[in-house]
Amino acid sequence: MDLLSLWLTVKPLPAEAESPPVKGFGRAVHAVIFEAIRAANPVLAQTVHDASSLKPFTVSDLLGYDAQKGVEAGRVYNLRFTALTRPVAQALWAAGQEGALKAGAILQLAERGFEVTNVDWGEAEAASPWGCAMSYESLSAPWLLGRQSPSYRLAFRFISPTAFKSNEKHVPLPMPGWVFGSLLEKWNVFAPVALPPEARRFAEECMALSGFKLSSRAAYVKEGGVRVGAVGMARYTALNKDRYWLSVMNLLADFALFAGVGAGTTMGLGQCRKVSDGKGSP
User: Fold this and answer.
1) Does the predicted model carry a pTM greater than 0.85?
2) Domain ranges (residues) in the chain
3) Which letter, b or e, does each residue of 145-158 get, where b requires 16 or more Cβ atoms within 10 Å of its Cβ?
């Protein structure tokens, strides 16, 4: 198992419904994953923390939370934690089985307590499409070994604000070159076999944003900053039907479940997955 996506269901402790609203929980969830990794493997946690480039994980914000309403009594929320390398996946797996992220555990998010009521990694009978565990080999084999015919139409569901850094600005529009370019960058950092850099050019020149249902949403980042990103659904259509390049695009689309896209994926932004029906509700 190299790739892991844990989908947690959490509920606020009774006293938290009286707490004043906070703008977001992304930084708090970021802290939770580091504590979970540290408990399983302190050396790995330090290595991941010190990495100056891309981090081998993503986290969501508190999904379903409305800053205008605050934490609501009796409501359930969701969290996502994903891993992009085997050591991090093993640490998260341990945390979800018997550690800090297991069912029954209490998480402290921005000084507010939440109980984990369910941990889903895609194996339960009623599993969430957001939970999954697999290897890079099993993810890539259908596409790179020609076992499956690639689709020339792909759709993504974005469930947290998604933005891309371009010319020192953050742009809240999931253009194909940015979406697939972001995925390609992470794939070539963490996967055992690199994909050709020309895949970015194919996405820019041959993948078209052919439909979308998006809305803008603010995300609150460090030092009181605000970043506006897109949430919703976007469809992409290939203008060039070359089988090899379509296979690469389909592989990267599958990888999005674990990698997220755009900026700030370790702070709650860019959570997305490929969907087949254009709806992709959690």
Assistant:
1) yes
2) 3-132, 138-275
3) eeeeebbbebbbbb
**If one looks up domain 138-275 in CATH, what number appears?**
3.30.70.1900
Question: Domain 3-132, what architecture?
Answer: 2-Layer Sandwich (3.30)
Which amino acid type is present at position 37? I
* Sign of the torsion angle spanned by Cα atoms 81, 94, 281, 76: negative
| Torsions phi, psi for 245 (to 5 deg) | -70, -35
Query: In angstroms, rounded to a whole number, what is the distance separating the alpha carbons of residues 156 and 253?
Result: 8
Average pLDDT, rounded, for the chain? 92
- The long-range contacts involving 100-103, CB below 8 angstroms and separated by at least 24 positions, are 100/32, 100/35, 100/36, 100/39, 101/6, 101/8, 101/32, 101/36
pLDDT of the residue at 267: 93
